[in-house]
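Blinded run. Sample ID left blank on purpose so nobody reads anything into the name before looking at the predicted structure. Input follows.
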Amino acid sequence: MFAKPNRGRTTAAAEGDVVVLLIGMRVNHFWAVHQWVPAFLAMLRMLRELGRDSSRGLLGHILLTASPRTYYVVQYWESREKLYAYAAAPDMFHHRVWAILNRKERAGKVRGHVGIWHETYIAPKGSYESIYLDMPPFGLAAATGVLPIEDRGRSAAERLAHR
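Blinded prediction complete.
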């Protein structure tokens, strides 16, 4: 939170494909605290679970808000395979939460008090770039490390051509 900024221009040290997962929730009814607080806490619990075992593949994450109703996490993953493996692992909390949600949905007990969403992006090597000016490690750079901009090129076109 109080990290010292890197001076000048830097870029992320990402190599290979970059896997980005945006996952979040929207509070549809503020008065339904008993519905949206557990959803929010479940996300935090999953992040803690992933943070305890780096072999699961989560490289880094940022918790953000889009509005007083919408909260989400930007997650950077080592590979799509590790993301899929975590999502499907029967011993992980995510699997248990989705099983509960699916049972409630089949039983007609989902009331629409909270919305859940995710988007997954896989950016192949050479199709992403980043630049940070007088910033501490943030986003992709916080997840993969920081390089001087010259290591990847001064322009976006040069950084996108990095292979």
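Unblinding after everyone has recorded impressions. Strands lie at 9-12, 18-27, 58-65, 70-77, 114-123, 132-133, 146-148.
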